[in-house]
Amino acid sequence: MNDFANKVAVVTGATRGCGRAIAVELGRLGMTVFVTGRSTRSARSPLNRPETIEETAELVEAAGGRAVTVRCDFTSVPDVDNLRDRIGERLDVLVDDVWGGDMFLDFQHAYWESSIDDALHMVRNAVDTHLIALHRLVPLVIRRPGGLVIEVTDGEDDEYVEAGIPYYVAKCSVRALGRALGEELAGHGCTGLAVTPGFLRSESMLDVFGVTEANWREAIGKTAPPSFAVSETPSYLARGVAALVTDPEVARFAGRTLASWTLMRTYGFTDLDGTKPDFGRWLSEVRHAGLDQAKADSAPFR
């Protein structure tokens, strides 16, 4: 633990979901964590969610870390420049988890029948933000060997799963960034890669299905699809990220996209309830095998 007390991390998009959980787990290692995002107690982002970076910071400090909140819109180069200047000389871990695309999702229409403005806003929020963050913050990471940059995406490969072309472009782009960073950072003695959760029980997903973390199973097969039985909390991926941060041989994963279930199999951690959700195995043995998802027993996949 003392090895990380002097280390510094930045988590972009740390207001909620995986970003919040990752910030907390890095705090649990004793790190100083810059908690960044657009939603504060004084002003919500256009997503109009109640979670704030201040709440995340309190969770980081409760876990044993030191939190520094910086309100930052990652579509704004001056905002990110301000964040860079706040960080100072040392940055050991950058976790790039900006998203902000929920309000632009359109799974109901063909791309050419949907709003082009929404499509471009999604790409702006989901891809341009990552490019801006990397351009301004990676120079801090590569100042010393051993730095780690982790891109957070959705999906471990580029298979199209009918989620809409703009969403597909956004998430494939982040995986591509992970591959490119694996090559680019190696020459500086640093590591770049990407990670993805499985079926995520984020705050917004729970709201969509009309349940809470306490009663989420009530939604399975009702407001939520059968696959929700193999869902995971944001802390599951966050524990995988913490395992990567503490792995002295993390460079062996350079350029890869690692799913929460792959990280679980590698490092052996559990979700908050002690289970080990394996959404990848469920996809392979149920959905891709053409089995009746409503009748599939989820127990072997947890």
UniProtKB/TrEMBL annotation:
InterPro entries: NAD(P)-bd_dom_sf (IPR036291), SDR_fam (IPR002347)
Domain of life: Bacteria
SUPFAM superfamilies with a match to the protein in the record: NAD(P)-binding Rossmann-fold domains (SSF51735)
Cited Gene3D superfamilies: NAD(P)-binding Rossmann-like Domain
NCBIfam families, A to Z: PRK08303.1
Protein name: SDR family oxidoreductase
Source species taxonomy: Bacteria, Bacillati, Actinomycetota, Actinomycetes, Pseudonocardiales
